[in-house]
Structure to design on (82 residues):
């Protein structure tokens, strides 16, 4: 799994960005699924690296910020959709 961490991370970021873009242009109901899948991939990477904190300490702090920003954007989308 270690050699695929970067690819999974990039896929998660791309899916999250696509989901946010679709939500802003087409509609919330279409963008929530790619955004949710992207956040799930980022969560998998974060959990993997969290169990190996000493090895990935710097990256873990970055992931915490990225995940918080993505969750904030998802909450903004849900508020805007009402």
């Amino acid at each position: 799994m270690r050699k695929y961490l970067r690819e999974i991370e990039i896929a998660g970021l791309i899916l999250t960005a696509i989901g946010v873009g679709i939500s802003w242009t087409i509609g919330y109901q279409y963008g929530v699924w790619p955004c949710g899948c992207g956040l799930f991939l980022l969560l998998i990477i974060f959990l993997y690296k969290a169990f190996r904190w000493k090895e990935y300490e710097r990256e873990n702090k970055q992931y915490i910020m990225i995940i918080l920003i993505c969750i904030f954007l998802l909450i903004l989308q849900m508020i805007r959709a009402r």
Summary: The chain is about 85% helix and 0% strand. The first helix runs from residue 5 to 25. The helical segments are 5-25, 28-50, 57-81. The chain has a mean pLDDT of 85.
